Amino acid sequence: PELFYLLEFYKDEAVYKKHVASAHYKKFTSASAEILASKKAISLKKRAAFSKNLTPERLKDAYFHITNLSLLAKSDAKFEKLVKKYMQKSVDEGAYVQFAFSQKDAPNKWVLVEIYKDEASFESYRHSENYKAYAKERAGLIDEFDGFALKNETSFSKVKF
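The line above is the sequence of Antibiotic biosynthesis monooxygenase; the predicted structure tokens follow.
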């Protein structure tokens, strides 16, 4: 089976609730039930968000990378500080967005969302001194780590960047 990810970001929970109560969302839910074997929503708490040079047009060909991690016990605050420090430095011409979230119901489980100009920009960042320093510092904080790329099929954005 193919996996599809739908990434949605809302200003706050009230806006999200308004969205899921809307007629177009109910229509989507009804239509998608016929083609989706399963679906899972994860409520997240924003921990860090940095962006530069991202426009709705650039999303079309962008390279998305998602990382799921589980932190070791009592590593949450230290990891958040670390992520903010290095993510802010990593946003440049090729790295449009760096987001870090933790799951609301499991704060030791984090999701990192990175959007790059292309795969070459992603690989360039992975070989940068900034990334190497980040990887070294995070080593004693992470229990499980799983990163993967996503192909952007469709982008809709009402965000003004």
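Note on the example: The longest helix spans residues 76-90. The chain is about 35% helix and 30% strand.
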